[in-house]
């Protein structure tokens, strides 16, 4: 009783009174009182064991809350365009997990309009989509520019040029994004304005899919190389700048609601990578 009083910063009689009140409330004895001291009853031991489990649970709950606060645990849902998912995010996620190894991530690849819908409806925490975005419900945290490039098989005649001119594409077979996309519309306008006649031999939505077809000589392509941030090369492919001023801006977006701690950690990392 004396030791318990010292731990609780109360007197020994106050401890005795609290135990007596608890015994009356629960309806059974917790201790057998003897001259030599106090011994717990079997019922008292059962109650102690259960209380100890709950205290351990509370400690674990506190530890979990601390892990969430410091982004050591959590869930992150990202939705992005196919080119970003396949070519840019793998490198980004390696850096992310080096800092936050306990975060589980769900990544989905969808067209731009679906990304905006999913962010508006808060089905995903982070979106990566081309700008501009005309929605008061969406917040743009940071953005990056990507310039149009020409990609071809390494054995293609244009592979030796330092700079590809738009006229060089005349009568070439092209592999482009689908007809309904903004990028395809803009590229067709550029070709028409420069009087370039091409055969659009194949359409594919994913940049990584386009790379595969170009690699096997199906045609050449005009793309935005999301995977070229660190100057890496892709075996079998050659990337060349083209004398066309066509740049897209891609944003890291969320809903207007304040991002979770985990989502904010990802946003901060993207700002570092893109700075």
Describe the structure.
It is a single chain. With 275 residues, this protein is of the alpha/beta class. The chain folds into 3 domains: 2-69, Winged helix-like DNA-binding domain superfamily/Winged helix DNA-binding domain (Arc Repressor Mutant, subunit A, Orthogonal Bundle); 74-144 and 249-274, 3-Layer(aba) Sandwich (D-Maltodextrin-Binding Protein, domain 2), CATH 3.40.190; 149-245, Periplasmic binding protein-like II (D-Maltodextrin-Binding Protein, domain 2, 3-Layer(aba) Sandwich), CATH 3.40.190. It has helices at 2-8, 12-26, 42-69, 82-99, 112-120, 182-193, 207-215, 261-274, and strands at residues 31-34, 37-40, 74-80, 103-109, 126-130, 138-147, 149-153, 173-176, 199-203, 221-223, 237-241, 247-255. The chain has a 5-stranded mixed beta sheet with strand order 4-3-5-12-6, with helices on both faces. A 3-stranded antiparallel beta sheet has the order 10-7-11, covered by helices on one side. Strands 1-2 form a two-stranded antiparallel ribbon. Helix 1 (2-8) crosses helix 2 (12-26). The longest helix is centred in the first third of the chain and has 28 residues, at 42-69. The two termini are 63 Å apart. The model has no long low-confidence stretch (mean pLDDT 89).
């Amino acid at each position: 009783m004396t030791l318990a009083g010292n731990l609780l910063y109360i007197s020994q009689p106050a401890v005795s009174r609290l135990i007596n009140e608890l015994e009356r409330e629960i309806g059974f004895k917790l201790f057998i009182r003897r001259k030599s001291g106090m011994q717990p009853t079997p019922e008292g031991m059962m109650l102690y064991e259960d209380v100890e489990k709950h205290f351990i649970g509370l400690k674990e709950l506190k530890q979990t809350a601390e892990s969430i606060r410091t982004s050591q645990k959590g869930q992150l849902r990202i939705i992005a365009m196919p080119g970003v998912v396949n070519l840019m995010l793998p490198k980004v996620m390696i850096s992310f997990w080096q800092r936050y190894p306990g975060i589980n991530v769900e990544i989905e690849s969808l067209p731009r309009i679906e990304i905006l819908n999913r962010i508006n409806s808060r089905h995903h925490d982070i979106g990566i989509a081309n700008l501009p975005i005309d929605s008061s419900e969406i917040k743009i945290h940071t953005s990056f520019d990507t310039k149009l490039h020409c990609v071809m098989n390494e054995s293609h005649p244009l592979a030796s040029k330092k700079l590809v001119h738009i006229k060089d594409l005349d009568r070439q077979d092209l592999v482009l994004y689908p007809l309904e996309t903004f990028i395809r519309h803009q590229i067709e306008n550029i070709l028409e304005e420069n009087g370039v006649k091409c055969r659009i031999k194949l359409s594919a939505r994913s940049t990584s899919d386009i790379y595969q077809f170009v690699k096997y000589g199906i045609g050449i392509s005009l793309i935005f190389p999301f995977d070229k941030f660190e100057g890496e090369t892709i075996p079998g492919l050659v990337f060349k700048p083209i004398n066309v001023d066509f740049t897209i801006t891609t944003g890291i977006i969320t809903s207007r609601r304040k991002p979770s701690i985990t989502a904010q950690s990802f946003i901060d990392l993207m700002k570092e990578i893109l700075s």
